[in-house]
Each structure stands twice: as C-alpha cells, then as structure tokens.
Amino acid sequence: MKLQTGYLFPEIGRRIRSFGAKNPDAKIISLGIGDATQPLAPAIVEAMKKAVVNMGSEAAFRGYGPEQGYDFLIDAIIENDFNSRPAPAAGVGAHSIDLDNDEIFVSDGAKCDTGNIQEIFGLNNVIAVTDPVYPVYVDTNVMAGRTGRADKNGQYSKIVYMPCTAENNFIPEPPRGSVDIIYLCFPNNPTGAVAAKEILNRWVNFARNNKAVILFDAAYEAFITDPDIPHSIYEVEGAKEVAIEFRSFSKTAGFTGVRCAFTVVPKQLKAYTKNGKAVEVNSLWHRRQCTKFNGASYISQAGAAAVYTTEGKKQCREIINIYMNNAAVIRKSLTKLGYDVYGGVNAPYVWMKTPDGISSWNFFDRLLQKANVVGTPGSGFGPSGEGYLRLSAFAKPDDVKEAMQRFAAV
Amino acid sequence: MKLQTGYLFPEIGRRIRSFGAKNPDAKIISLGIGDATQPLAPAIVEAMKKAVVNMGSEAAFRGYGPEQGYDFLIDAIIENDFNSRPAPAAGVGAHSIDLDNDEIFVSDGAKCDTGNIQEIFGLNNVIAVTDPVYPVYVDTNVMAGRTGRADKNGQYSKIVYMPCTAENNFIPEPPRGSVDIIYLCFPNNPTGAVAAKEILNRWVNFARNNKAVILFDAAYEAFITDPDIPHSIYEVEGAKEVAIEFRSFSKTAGFTGVRCAFTVVPKQLKAYTKNGKAVEVNSLWHRRQCTKFNGASYISQAGAAAVYTTEGKKQCREIINIYMNNAAVIRKSLTKLGYDVYGGVNAPYVWMKTPDGISSWNFFDRLLQKANVVGTPGSGFGPSGEGYLRLSAFAKPDDVKEAMQRFAAV
Which domain holds residue B391? Predict the structure, then answer.
C-alpha cells in the first residue's frame, strides 16, 4: 500500500487508449515498451513442436522437471554463455568462465527472478539502485517492507539512489555510505549505457570491501557490439564471491511470450547474518525456488536449448541485427535532427534528451499527439530520468523508419 | 534459515537413489509424488502445436501477454469451471457462479500462487493450517518471517495447527483463538478427505465473523465423484467476501511439466489494516502479479484453453478416470489386506494407516526394501500424519496393480 503509483507501462497504455479512442484513424507506432516483434527463429519453433509432440506420447511425456531446470538446457547455457567468455586474469589457453550445473537456476523470467531474489535477504538490508532504474527492483523492495515512504519525487526512504546523467556518462560511482545490496543493469535499461571492465572491477572491489552483494542484470548482453565490453560480470576478478547474474531469453530470442530465463548464483557467494556469520547464498536460493516454484515449462526449456544450436545461434543473431539496425536508424535520424541521444550502440534502447527542457511526460504527450509515436517517459524510471525519453528498438523496421520520418516532419 | 528440514520430496528422492544404488536390479514402483504419468490429451497437443507455429509467424507472433492471462483462457475458465456450478441460495434458473474476468489470475502453477499469496498480507497476521498439511503453505510463511522457531515436532510458533485424524474424519473444527489467514485444501492433499457444503459453510461463517481470509486450494476438484461435494468454495453463501481459490491444470490435465494454473480473487474480498481499514485484496494481488510476474507461457495458455473444448473435456475426463480407477484398486487391495484406508474416492490420494503402529518413515523404508514400492511418509506432512502413508493414484495402471500384488506378497 506504500507504492506510490501504478507500474509505468499500464499508465502509458492508458494514455495510448485514451488518445486512440479520440483519434480512431491515427496509426500509432510504438517505440515504447521493450517487447519483441520478430517471430521466433525456425530452429526454436521446430524444437518446441517436437517437445509438444513428446508431451503427447506415452514414452516421452514429462511431468514435473527439476525446479532448477533441465540439464540439457543448463549444459548449453554454461558452454555457450560462459565457457566461451574470457575468465578474469586468464593465462594462455585459459579463456573460460567455469560454472557448475547447480549454479544455474532456470526460471520463467528475469522479471520474476530480479523481483524474487530480495526474498532471501533480511528486511534490514539497505539497497542501492541507479536513478533512473527498472521499476521492478524498487517496487519489489517496497512491497517486502524494506523501505520507508516515498517523498514528493517518488523516491523511498532507506533506499540509496545513485543518479545517472549525461554528466557521469550514465555510470554511477559506488556510494559513500554503507549499502548491502546493489542492483546494476548493463547494458542498461533504460539509458542504454554499458560498463567497461574497469567499471565492473570497481564495483566488485567495492562489494568485496563492504560485504555487499551485487545483483547484476545482464538481460541485454546479447546486444553488445563492442568486443571489449564484458557480457558477464564473472569476467571480472572476484565477481563470483559477490555477484548474482540475471539472464533472459526474452530479448535474446524473442521469448517475451514463451517465458524462459536463468539466474547464476555462484557457490562462492556469501551473505552475512546480523551476527556476521557467512551463509552460502546458493543454497538459500535453491531452497526458495524448490519451495515456491516448479520449474519453467518443459516446452519453453526445449525452445531455449535450441537457441544454442548452430542454426539457432545464426537465426537469433539475424533477429538481433534487425533490432540493432533499428537502433542505428533511430540514433542517426535523431542526431541529424539535432537531438542529444545516448545508448543504442550496445543496447536496444536509445535515451534521448527532450528538446527545450520540456518534461518527459509533456514530450511523451506531444509526440503521441503530433507524430502518433509512443516512447517511454524517462521520469517514469526515476527523477534523474526527467527530461529524457526512452525509445525502444524492438519495433518492425518499417515502423521505425516511418516513426523517424514523422519525427522529422514535426 | 529457520526452516528445519529440506522439502519432503528431495528427501524421498535421496532414499530411493540410495536404495537403487545398492539394489540396481530392483524395479522400483513409485506411488510417492503426485505427478501425472499419462501423456497430454490429443486436443491439448494440437492446440499447443498450433500455438508454437503461430509464434514462428510474422502475423501471429505474440510477445508479452497480459500478466493476468489471455481472455481466451479466462473466458473458458469462467464459463466451464464456475458458470456451470450451482451458486449459493440460487433461485429457480439461477444456477451459476458469476465471476468477472479481472477476478481470475492465470499463472504458471498453484505451488507458486499458494506460495506467493502470503506476500500481500502483513507479517503480523496469524495463519492457521491443518496438520497434516501441504508443506508449501507453512514453509513460505516461515521464509517470510511470519513465524517463530520450530519445536521438536517441527511445528513453528505463531502458527495455529489444526489436527486432522481419523477421529475427526480428517476435517478440522475452526480454531478457538483468533486467526487471520486460514489455509484449507479440499479434496485434501495428503489425506484425500473432502468437505461437504455444510463444512465449508461453517468455515465461511467463521471467516466472516472473525475478519479472516480463507485460502482455498482446490487443485484436485476434478477428482470429485460425489455430486453433492462442492467443487468451488464459491458454491457457499458469502464465500466471495472471505475466500481466495486456487486451481491448477497440473492434475486435471497433466500439466505438471507444462505449467498453468489460476487463482480467483473476488473483488468483494476485503482484508483489514492494523487500524481496521478495509482494503480490496484483488487490487493488491493484481499489483503483486504485475510487478513480479510476466504471465504464463502463451503456449501453455493455449493448451489450457483446449482443456475446455468438447474433445479436450472428454479426453481429460478419460485420463482422470484412469487415475481414479487406480485409486479404487489401491483402496480395494489394501482393505482386503486388512489395512485402514481413507481418501481415494473423491481424490487421487489414498491415506493408509501403517500396521502395528510403526512410524511413517519406518513403514516407508520397509515398503521400499521389501516390496520396492514408494509411498510418501505421512509424518512428512506434520505430526498428525505420523503413522500414515500417502499413496498416489498418479501411476500407470499396470504399476499400480503390480504394487498391490507386492503389498499382498509382503
């Protein structure tokens, strides 16, 4: 009941419906919510069809699976997403992040995992979040009772907010005060900023020195184009001692309607009781998932495993390229029109400064009314997002081109 | 960290693996965990294949769905599961439980829903559970911090336990003290007991008089064979003011690996703040689900909708009949052998008294070693389950018959 406002996207939906009702002929183009628009890759469709047929056969039917996911998927995840990445301080020939199967927890979505993870930590832990921020991190802590009330800016007491603006390149410094749990998201939603290895290094050191835990949301890692940017926080020395990493097939493979994701909780990671006793976080999360979750759909897991086949990788890469071309078109068009734009190079989001200092919601409304184009008001992600608009690259290419023409006309 | 023991089923799995390792030739038959073994009905397979193909097509691809589920499924649920049931105090021609679409919340499982529902209630609420009980109700409250520590019987302080034994026909009386949240499960897991309308009436009246909320787990309603037993608590006068109902496709349609369920939260239902202010529970759960959940898989929802087609209903009924025949075989065989057995008539579980007063785990071990048959120790569900074993009817008919022959031989 402490939550101030509705979740951001329902409010956007309300304004679109209201405008659409008054302007039934308007062809609205949405660059708002970050939702996949390209159909699933053929390799994924074939794998899921096969899984469905299996479920109808006496010999191949599967009931309850392991709560943490099937090994056929976990093996593919470790081999492709981690063993292929450079380990920290790797010697010659030692280019691999190693993980055990019981350090991977397959789930039905990164929203669920980033929302549920706080349950295994005490209510007195102080959390730190960036501003702007993906609202789920904050709202789930408010609901758990880990915060005080909101101020007039919508910021809650007992949360440490770390402003991200053009001045600091949308990368915050570690806070000065004591914090216990730090939410980081790179490539960032909503700003599109990415963290170089030395930035992640600084955060991991901060966490190690302060017995803090980093919750690292890497849901957009597949959109990184710069080869020097880490895809996993475990590319950084010591990260396994302090960081949980969240991954998702939602944007990587268009699974927003299929539902599959995973969370990495290394067994080296420790949290501390009030009395300073070290506790293994992996077994706490294992127990939480066994008690409250019954595994992701077998069919979704079969589809996710196909993402890692030779065909699946190629087809998913082509789809990601479509979205990243969209991002390039948005960046180029808006830059040409004189707007300040950020992100969109290693992330599927472009973060644009509104013109003439007008507010995010006013610019949202103006854009909807004059161009029939929908963005996401930056202020919906926090006070430091005021004066920005997020544009998503997850639209159809023709829609993106037309949206940019309308921008130019307005 | 307060949780006493691992979740029951992993411990059973451990003992089976240990026995199997020492006796590699033993053909173990499991009547333990309640997991579907019959393949999915053909109508469901066809619907899910079509859904998968749609996800691979430009025109029919679906991204994020409504967090509360698609209307195509919710419409079918309301029409078939509720409009077909007699409403309380129905006049002539008024035989229907009416629900609005926004009172149904589709999810990925009843374990998730019965585990998560406690989040929307304050930590000072006192919960009441039956003993024996499905462990998820208790463990999730322990994890939330709503209880004290466990005593030597494994029962936690600040929880009101209501013993269910042969003496009270496994139906508890409402507690004398004040409780805020009551978990009831009918048809019951593990005892197989069902509640007649007058029993549910008494509970609803108790909740109305005490401003309590009933969490009614009806995951096994499809197994009711007696026409006088209510399938929904909303068949009782006033239940919409005090009860949340949980349903699942797991056992009804073999969805344990597919994942789809739903929860009913009537808008009339109110909870009360510490200061006595009435709050609508529906909007709290709506906000919880919007913030922490992204909807069940579209493919699973398409499969669930097929459960309600003419073919789907017929095919699912045939599968349920297979399981209920199993239950009848178990009941008849064990009765003939002189055991005291309960349940198995309106529920897929048979609850048997162990012979000669031996403990549940000793009987479990003896049965595993001598007959290579697995049951679930009653004491795993609570102290009043000591001296009982749960036998699940969710096995293949030939396995059930062989298990009963081995029982007879031992």
Answer: 8-38+311-409
